[in-house]
Design goal:
The chain is an all-alpha fold. It is 73% helix and 0% strand.
Length: 443
């Protein structure tokens, strides 16, 4: 199936988009945005629920998540080389498969990543102020407002701040590993099998861990802001995913060996309990600061990515058109980001961290299922990787969605259904209005 020519669809409203973004991001900056998003999402927040599902099979789940993330990453990269514009799989799905597929991808991305924003803000609050739920949620709200304001000022500042946050996070993670090794105490265990949760539990852990690998989506959705996107986006995605996977393996192995899956599963701040189990209480402040820094870095990238997908959907009138505005001075989708910040502030005052992670995983996995299907339909001249990789990625996404916690799958399915039903109603009303207008035209 050959793709339709991008930018020349029957919908002429797209031909006059909002003001263009400035192309400022090069490969190191784009890769750092992805690394900052992934490290903040996974290392400090997802080990607990994943260990609860898989037990000692956590590392196998991590490997499965990494393989599927790679399939999804190359699908995104291959598509981004053809469609280097804001919107990610929302645009890819529209152009390769049709408007409904694109809407499904965009809607899942927006709802899933809005939940991710809440999860990251709650991670920051949990590590910064343990044992004080209401005050911690207030801190989370302040963080969301502050970082939304930073994004409002422009993507150059986003890249610069992300570089600093990632550096500090890596220092904190290195301290955790050193503390675990130097502490010399171990009450956990490693396993090369499926662990106490069996195959189902391991797959569920993989679905939850996949939440942590989705940072490369921020790179693909910033196609209008990178220099030479056909070269920069694939390289940045590959670098970000490889670096993050290695870090995840090291930290997960240390956590299992030192603390064990039972301690991780019961903890709201698992890496704090790792250094405590190692007898290295001196490292606890470093862990908490590292978690706060990592969470802030992830939240910064998430706000930018969700804002740009919202912009793309608004340009095509799949969301209210006023969200498509680009600030004339700062060249950012300021209305979309302000609306996102308001919703996230509401969520951090009402939702649970583990529930937010599960719901986010649902949305992201459906999003990448559509990305793989879209990449599968690309012509031979547009392909870099074989179709078998897309097939593996699509099947993997469906399997992980099916094994997520039931509450996350049910709520996710319901919200997806609401979005699709809403688009159906709006589409029919629009057709009826056009039909009445045509009948009223004098012959």
């Amino acid at each position: 199936m050959a793709p339709r020519t991008f930018g020349h669809r029957h919908d002429e409203r797209v031909s006059s988009p909002s003001p263009a973004f400035a192309r400022k991001l090069r490969t190191p900056d784009a890769a750092l945005i992805g690394i900052g998003s992934m490290i903040g999402a996974g290392v400090f927040s997802v080990l607990g629920p994943a260990a609860s599902a898989a037990g000692t099979g956590l590392l196998v789940g991590l490997l499965i998540a990494g393989v599927i993330a790679y399939c999804n990453a190359v699908a995104s990269a291959q598509l981004a080389m053809v469609y280097p514009t804001s919107g990610g799989t929302y645009i890819y799905g529209r152009e390769q498969l049709g408007p409904w597929w694109g809407f499904g991808a965009g809607w899942c991305f927006v709802i899933g990543k809005t939940a991710s924003c809440a999860a990251m803000a709650l991670t920051v609050a949990t590590y910064a102020l343990p044992g004080h739920d209401l005050a911690a949620r207030g801190i989370a709200v302040v963080c969301v407002i502050a970082l939304a304001g930073l994004n409002y000022r422009g993507v150059t500042k986003t890249a610069w701040v992300t570089r600093v946050l990632v550096s500090l996070t890596l220092v904190a993670l290195a301290t955790i590993v050193a503390a675990a090794i130097l502490g010399g105490q171990s009450s956990g265990s490693l396993s090369s099998g499926f662990g106490e949760g069996g195959i189902y539990g391991t797959l569920q852990a993989a679905g939850l861990m996949f939440f942590a690998f989705a940072g490369y989506a921020r790179i693909a959705t910033m196609g209008e802001e990178v220099v030479n996107p056909a070269r920069t986006i694939p390289r940045a995605i590959t670098i970000a995913l490889a670096v993050t996977f290695v870090i995840y393996v090291v930290i997960a192995a240390v956590a299992l060996a030192v603390a064990g899956p039972a301690v991780l599963a019961a903890s709201s701040a698992p890496l704090v309990d790792v250094v405590d189990a190692a007898g290295a209480a001196w490292a606890e402040p470093v862990v908490r600061v590292g978690a706060v820094v990592a969470g802030l870095g992830a939240l910064l990238g998430l706000i930018a990515g969700v804002g740009r997908t919202t912009l793309a959907m608004a340009r095509h009138h799949d969301l209210p058109a006023w969200l498509s505005a680009v600030h004339p001075r700062f060249a950012v989708p300021h209305r979309a980001e302000l609306a996102l910040a308001a919703v996230v502030c509401l969520l951090v005052m009402t939702v649970d961290l583990r529930g937010a992670i599960g719901f986010s995983s649902f949305g992201v996995l459906v999003y990448y299922f559509i990305a793989n299907v879209s990449a599968f339909t690309q012509s031979a001249s547009q392909r870099v990787w074989p179709r078998a990789v897309n097939v593996l990625g699509a099947i993997g996404c469906l399997v992980l969605v099916a094994t997520l916690p039931k509450e996350s799958a049910l709520v996710g399915s319901a919200v997806l259904g609401v979005g699709l039903a809403g688009r159906l109603v709006v589409t029919r009303l629009s057709r009826q209005r056009r039909g009445r207008s045509l009948r009223q035209v004098p012959r």
